[in-house]
Amino acid sequence: MGAFLFTNETAVRLGAFVGVFAAMALWEVAAPRRVPRVGRRIRWPGNLGIAALDAVLLRLLFPVAAVGVAVAAEDQGWGLLHALDMPRWLAVVAAVVVLDLVVYLQHVLFHAVPGLWRLHRMHHADLDVDVTTGARFHPVEMVLSMLIKLAAVSVLGAPAEAVVAFEVLLNATAMFNHGNVRLPLPVDRALRWVVVTPDMHRVHHSVERAETDSNYGFNLSWWDRLFGTYRDQPRAGHEAMTLGIEQFREPADLRLDRMLVQPFLDDTPTVPLGGRKGGRA
C-alpha cells in the first residue's frame, strides 16, 4: 500500500484538488454567501498563480514529499505509532487527527511570531474570501510548513495512507471552508461541531484583530473549542464584515508580483480602517 501511494500520490491529490475546486467554484456561483467586493478577473490570476508557483517549488525542493518520509519511517520502524504497535486502522486515524492538531498549532504560531506573520499575512490580504483563497500562501510559508509536516510525520511514524488522506483532506477542507458559499444555518451549526465551516472560518479573515486571532482550524473544529480560540460570529455579521488586513487594500496589491514581495513591504496601511494607524491587522 505504501509503495502504491508513494507512486500515485500526485495523481490522487491532483484529482481531488480539481474535483473539489470545480464543485466549490460552481457552488459559489449558485449560492454565494457575500457579494464579492473585487471581481474574479482581478483576484484569481494572483491567487491561482501563487498556488501553481507553490506546487512547483515544493515538488522541486521536496521530491519525495511527506508520503515518501512516511514510507521510509515504516520501512525503518521509526516513530511513536510504530512503537505503540497499534492496529493499522487506528494508527491511520490517530495520525490524521494528530497531523490536524499540528496544522492548528502551526497556524497559531504564524499569527503569534511577527516574522512568521509577515509571511502569513499574504493569505489574509485577500480582499474577498473564496475557494482560491484556500490556496493563497506565500512560497516561503509553504516551505516552512512542509518542513514542519515532514518532522511531524517522522516523529509520529504516520502510515503512508494516513499522510495521503490528510493531504487530501487538508486541501479539500481549505477550499471548502474558504468558500463564498451559503449553508443553511442548521446545517452549519451541526457541521461545525466536527469540521470547520465557511461561516466559521470566514471570521478568521475579518479585518478586526480579535476576530483574526480566532478560528484557526482548517479541518477539525475541535481544537479552537478546546484551546479557547473559537468565535461563533463576526461582530458586524457576515454580509457587512470587512475582510483582509489594513495594510494592503489596493487592487494592485492582489497582483502576483506584489504578493511575492509583500512580507518585505512597509506595515503602514494604504487605506486606514477603524481609526487605527498601522501595525498588525
Give structural attributes:
disordered C terminus, single chain, 281 residues, mainly alpha
Question: How would you sum up this structure, described in words?
Answer:
The longest helix has 29 residues, at 2-30. The chain has 281 residues and is mainly alpha-helical. Helix 2 (40-61) packs across helix 7 (139-156) and helix 5 packs across helix 6. The chain is 60% helix and 0% strand. It is built from 13 helices and no strands. It has helices spanning 2-30, 40-61, 65-76, 80-84, 88-112, 114-124, 139-156, 160-177, 185-191, 198-202, 209-212, 222-227, 256-261. Mean pLDDT is 89; it is low at 270-281. The chain is globular and about 50 Å long. It starts with a helix and ends in a 20-residue tail after the last helix. The protein has one domain.
In a nutshell, what does this entry contain?
With 281 residues, this protein is mostly helical.
List the helices and strands and how they pair.
Blueprint (H helix, E strand, L loop, with lengths): L1 H29 L9 H22 L3 H12 L3 H5 L3 H25 L1 H11 L14 H18 L3 H18 L7 H7 L6 H5 L6 H4 L9 H6 L28 H6 L20
What is the 3D shape?
globular
**Residues in β-strands, percent:** under 5%
Specify the helix fraction band. 55-70%
Count of folded domains:
1
H/E element string?
HHHHHHHHHHHHH
**Which structural category fits the helices and strands?**
mainly alpha
User: What's the story with the biggest beta sheet?
Assistant: none
Uncertain spans: 270-281
The number of strands is 0
- Give the CA-CA distance, first to last residue: 45 Å
Helical element count? 13
Overall pLDDT confidence: 89
The value of Rg in angstroms is 19 Å
Oligomer: single chain
